[in-house]
Write a structure and sequence with these properties.
With about 70 residues, the protein is mainly beta. It has strands at about 1-10, 10-20, 25-30, 35-40, 50-60, 65-70.
Amino acid sequence: LTLYVNNTKAVSYTVRIYAANGQVVKTETFKHPGGSCSKTIELPGQLQAGQYFLQATGSEGQSTTIQFITQ
C-alpha cells in the first residue's frame, strides 16, 4: 500500500490501519520531509481479505481516512 503526501510542510505522520470491526491491525510513524513524497506501508502478512481503513494523522492534528479492500 503506497501513501502519497503532496505539497505539505515537514511534519511527522502516524498511520493506523483498522479492520472493519475497529481493531487496529498496524501502526506506523514516519517523518515527512516536506513537499511531496510517497511512503510504502507494508500490510501485515496475516491480513485477511476484507474492508480496512487507513488513517493518517499529522503531528499538527490534520487527519485523513481512506477505505480500502484486500482480496
